Amino acid sequence: MIERTFQNVPEDDMDKADQHEYLVALGWDRGTTWQDLLRSKRVLIISEAGAGKTYECQAQSRLLWDRGEPAFFVELASLASQPLRDLLDNDEAARLGAWRVSQSDTATFFLDSFDELTLSVGSFRQALKNLKKAVNGKLGQTRIVITTRPIPIDEKLVREILPVPDLPSPLEGSQEESFANHAMRRGLGKPSRPDSDEVSA
Known about the structure:
Residues 169-201 are annotated as: Disordered. This is ATP-binding protein. One of its GO terms (molecular function) is ATP binding. Keywords: ATP-binding, Nucleotide-binding. By secondary structure, the protein is of the alpha/beta class. The protein has helices at 20-26, 34-37, 53-66, 76-79, 90-101, 121-135, 155-161, 170-187; strands at residues 42-46, 71-75, 107-112, 142-148. The chain folds into 2 domains: 11-160, Rossmann fold; 168-201. It has 8 helices and 4 strands, in the order ααβαβααβαβαα. It has a 4-stranded parallel sheet, sandwiched between helices. Strand 3, helix 6 (121-135) and strand 4 (142-148) form a beta-alpha-beta unit. The termini are far apart.
């Protein structure tokens, strides 16, 4: 079985990502698999026309979907002019709704063909804004894969509109949990012991 691999383009080399010679040189490295790639929350796939970007993303979307995960394949050109929900069928809309109320699941959005956005940069901005509105404040639980041919793309716009939020540290989480436990005990009329390590209000 043939397994697709990818090459990482360092951030400092993003200005070379539309140069054929640079992309060919990257091909000598071992590469990254889909499994490795999907560990990241924001992914940009750059390859020549006919390399199979659309097919690969559709296949990965189906694979995740069949596992019961929220995964959606969307044409960027369509997302630039319509809300995400209007682009989904009933089953997809239902799974999107279930994910929006979940606490831990990660949804994967494959946004295909930046290069086919034939309008202005404003249309790319609108597509990203439409996705942001659809995920409803769950950017930290959103994985986004964007595909394009080797043409300039404003990846800073993705960071601006769809950033990956910083996660709270384990210490912050434990302090909040301890405070909540302390408040619950007080509410139940159970005073805490003086030697307790709970955070006092």
